Amino acid sequence: MTLLGSSDLDVFPLSLGGNVFGWTADRYTSFAVLDAFVGGGGNFVDTADVYSAWAPGHSGGESETILGEWLETRTSADVVIATKVASHPDFRGLSAATIRAAAEASLQRLGVDAIDLYYAHTEDPDTPLEETVAAFGALVADGLIRYPAISNHSAEKTREWVRIARDLGVAEPVAIQPRYNLVDRSIESDLLPAAEELGLAVVPYSALASGFLTGKYRSSDPAGQPSPRAKGAASYATEDGLRIIAALEDVAAAHDTGIPSVALAWLRAKGTVPIASASRVEQVEGLLAGARLDLTADDVATLDAVSATATVAA
């Protein structure tokens, strides 16, 4: 288990992504995926109020609703829940009023007394950061959330958030959630050093690069692929991207495991707690394996080298 930053949140070293709940995984399948994850030792689930507003007929909140219904029927499940504010169609931005209204709506859908980890989903240039930081602090003081966190913020904004929180004497963030994986290592130059300096846990999303790092998508043409993520995954299938897949295959063979497990283990070796989702129950085993696989120093060096200079379309 892993403590997130300066918090007392003791989590499994991999978070189950809830972006698929109610989208590519219906209610029944979502329940089964959650059961398999928790049954395998997982206890950390990530969602957002906007999931899955992009799907036809959806308005946002579908993932939180399914997760809340699962929690209601699994009263013995002891899980750490992370969700986010800023992108829901009805709660855009990070004004104080929006943050509180969105948190109350998320609490209702989730059916919990307090949100364990509450992320500012994206930067809001229209709201002073002082207002946002104070609003998150007020949520902690009032018991609606346990810890603030930050997603998709620059290193500069992350440092500024922490400085303001300290100046105001309110709860500081304990984690950041950036995009980070073997085909996108851009945060290593600035955001990762900032997180280390500030003592923030790093909980990266897109850990498997829209499914590309599963090894399932090896063509730059998504035609004929049934998955809604095929287009995103196909964009990574460049010569550099395929060299990364080949290196993952070699390491996976040496450990008698799957490519996704190695990609997740690499992120863990970088000191992060990656997020990965599963639309089918049979995918959960590979996620759990990635949380338990310890790569050798040579494995990490091999993957570092093949991905260090890669130019991969996003």
Question: What oligomeric state do these chains adopt?
Answer: single chain
The helix/strand class is alpha/beta
Number of strands: 12
Rg estimate, integer Å = 19 Å
Average pLDDT figure: 94
Unreliable spans: none
The arrangement of helices and strands along the chain is: EEEHEHEEEHEHEHEHEHHHEHH
Using the 3D structure, state the CATH architecture of the domain at 2-177: Alpha-Beta Barrel
Largest sheet: 8 strands, parallel
**What's the CATH first level of the domain at 2-177?**
Alpha Beta
Helix content estimate = 40-55%
CATH level-four homologous superfamily name of the domain at 2-177: NADP-dependent oxidoreductase domain
N- to C-terminal distance: 32 Å
Q: Provide a count of the helices.
A: 11
Share of β-strand residues: 5-15%
3D architecture notes:
This protein has 314 residues and is α/β, with parallel strands linked by helices. It has a domain at 2-177: Alpha-Beta Barrel (TIM Barrel), CATH 3.20.20.100. It is built from 11 helices and 12 strands. The longest helix has 17 residues, at 239-255. It starts with a strand and ends in a 6-residue tail after the last helix. The model has no long low-confidence stretch (mean pLDDT 94).
